[in-house]
C-alpha cells in the first residue's frame, strides 16, 4: 500500500522543535533514588532475565508520572525526549540496572528489553573499540566514525551518556515522516520506491553475512489524518548489500532515493542537534526518528573516553511499530 496522505503527528522540522524546553526533561532526586532502589532490589538478576512484571507494578508515583510523560511524547508528539540528570555515580552494574529499569518502565506491560546483537546483549556499550569502520562486519557504534542518519532495530531506542567526547560526537535527529512527506510532495516518481523491497546486508564479527529484503517504509496503521508509517533506514547496510554477489542489485531509482533521504535529513531545516553531557538519556521513537552521530575525537586518557550505554526497548502499545523489528536481533544459539 502506497498512501496518498501521511499522519502528521510526528511530522516536524527544526523550527518546530527549536525550543529545547519542549523536549528536555530534568530528572529529580526522587526519581533517581527510586531507580537505584529498584536496581538494588534486582541486583541478583541479569538484564536479559528482567521483565515488565519486575518493574511496572513496582514503580512509585514519580517514576510512573515520568514514564507516562515520556511515552506520551514518543507516541503522540515529536517522538524524542532528552532526560537531564540521570545519576551516573556508583557501581557500573547498579547504573546499568537502574537504566534498564527506566527502559522497562517505558516499554509498558507488553514490552521488554530487546537483544541488540546475535549474542543476545540487552545493553551495549557505545564507544570506540578500534574496529575498522570500513569492514563489512563492523557495527559503526564501535568506532569513532560518523554514522549518517539511520534507524535502529526496536520500538524505542535509549542512549545514556556516561562520558562525552573531547570534541565532536553530536547527536542529530530528524523526523522520518517529514522527510518521506517531502519526497511525496516533490518527487512523486521516487515516493513509491520507498515502499518496495530493498536488499540489506547484515553481519557481525565471527558470523557469515546475511542478506534480507524489506522496504524502507511500511504502513503500520491509519488515522483520520492519514497513514501511520514505520521507517527503517540504514544506508550503509543497503549499499553494502551490493558487495554480496547473490544480493539483488539496487535499481537506479533505489540508489537515488537512498541519497535523497540522506540529503534531506542533513538539510538543517529538517534536523535538530544536541550535544550529550554525562547523565543525559536520549529516548527515540524508532519508527519516526532518524538519528545521526557526528565523528568524534577522544581524550587520550582511557578513563575519559566517550562512553554511552544503549538500550533497545520493545513497546508494542506505543503505536506505529513494526512487529518484524520489535524483538531486536535474533540470537544465535551456540
Distance between the termini: 39 Å
Number of helical runs? 6
Helical/strand content category: alpha+beta
CATH topology label: Double-stranded beta-helix
Number of DSSP E strands: 17
- Subunit arrangement of the protein: single chain
The total number of structural domains is 1
Radius of gyration: 19 Å
CATH architecture: 4-Layer Sandwich
Helix content: 10-25%
Q: Which regions are unreliable across 5 or more consecutive residues at pLDDT < 50?
A: none
Order of helices and strands: EHHEHEEEEEEHEEEEHHEEEEE
Shape: globular
The portion of residues forming beta strands comes to 15-25%
CATH homologous group name: Clavaminate synthase-like
Main sheet attributes: strand count, strand direction, barrel closure: 7 strands, mixed
Average pLDDT, all residues? 93
CATH class: Alpha Beta
Short précis:
By secondary structure, the chain is α+β, with helices and mostly antiparallel strands. Helix content is 23%, strand content 24%. The radius of gyration is 19 Å and the shape is globular.
Task: Describe the protein's architecture and organization.
The structure is a single chain. With 334 residues, this protein is an alpha+beta fold. It has one domain (14-318): 4-Layer Sandwich (Double-stranded beta-helix). It contains 6 helices and 17 strands. The protein has helices at 29-41, 61-76, 92-107, 176-186, 235-240, 252-266, and strands at residues 24-26, 80-84, 112-113, 123-126, 147-150, 156-163, 167-168, 171-175, 198-202, 210-214, 217-223, 226-231, 271-274, 281-285, 289-293, 296-297, 307-314. The strands form 5 sheets. Strands 1, 2, 3, 4, 6, 14 and 17 form a 7-stranded mixed beta sheet that branches. Strands 5-15-8-13 form a 4-stranded antiparallel beta sheet. A hairpin with a 7-residue loop joins strand 9 and strand 10 (210-214). Helix 2 (61-76) packs across helix 3.
Amino acid at each position: 500500500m502506497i498512501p496518498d496522505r501521511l499522519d502528521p503527528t510526528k511530522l516536524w522540522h527544526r523550527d518546530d522543535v527549536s525550543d529545547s524546553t519542549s523536549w528536555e526533561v530534568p530528572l529529580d532526586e526522587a526519581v533517581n533514588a527510586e531507580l537505584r532502589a529498584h536496581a538494588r532490589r534486582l541486583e541478583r538478576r541479569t538484564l536479559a532475565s528482567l521483565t515488565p512484571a519486575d518493574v511496572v507494578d513496582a514503580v512509585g508515583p514519580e517514576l510512573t508520572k515520568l514514564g507516562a510523560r515520556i511515552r506520551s511524547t514518543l507516541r503522540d508528539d515529536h517522538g524524542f525526549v532528552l532526560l537531564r540528570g540521570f545519576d551516573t555515580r556508583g557501581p557500573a552494574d547498579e547504573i546499568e540496572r537502574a537504566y534498564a529499569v527506566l527502559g522497562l518502565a517505558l516499554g509498558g506491560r507488553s514490552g521488554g528489553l530487546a537483544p541488540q546483537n546475535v549474542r543476545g546483549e540487552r545493553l551495549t556499550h557505545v564507544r570506540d573499540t578500534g574496529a575498522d569502520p570500513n569492514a563489512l562486519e563492523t557495527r559503526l557504534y564501535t568506532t569513532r566514525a560518523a554514522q549518517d542518519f539511520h534507524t535502529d532495530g526496536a520500538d524505542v531506542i535509549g542512549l545514556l551518556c556516561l562520558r562525552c567526547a573531547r570534541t565532536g560526537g553530536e547527536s542529530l535527529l530528524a523526523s522520518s515522516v517529514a522527510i518521506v512527506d517531502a519526497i511525496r510532495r516533490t518527487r512523486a516518481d521516487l515516493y513509491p520506491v520507498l515502499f518496495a523491497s530493498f536488499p540489506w546486508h547484515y553481519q557481525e564479527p565471527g558470523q557469515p553475512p546475511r542478506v534480507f529484503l524489506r522496504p524502507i517504509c511500511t504502513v503500520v496503521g491509519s488515522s483520520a489524518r492519514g497513514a501511520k508509517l514505520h521507517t527503517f533506514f540504514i544506508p550503509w547496510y543497503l549499499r553494502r548489500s551490493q558487495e554480496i554477489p547473490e544480493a539483488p542489485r539496487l535499481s537506479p531509482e533505489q540508489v537515488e532515493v537512498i541519497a535523497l533521504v540522506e540529503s534531506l535529513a542533513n538539510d538543517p531545516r529538517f534536523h535538530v542537534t544536541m550535544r550529550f553531557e554525562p547523565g543525559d538519556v536520549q529516548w527515540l521513537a524508532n519508527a519516526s526518528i532518524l538519528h545521526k552521530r557526528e565523528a568524534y575525537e577522544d581524550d587520550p586518557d582511557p578513563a575519559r573516553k566517550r562512553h554511552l550505554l544503549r538500550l533497545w526497548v520493545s513497546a508494542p502499545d506505543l503505536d506505529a511499530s513494526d512487529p518484524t523489528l520489535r524483538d531486536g536481533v535474533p540470537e544465535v544459539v551456540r
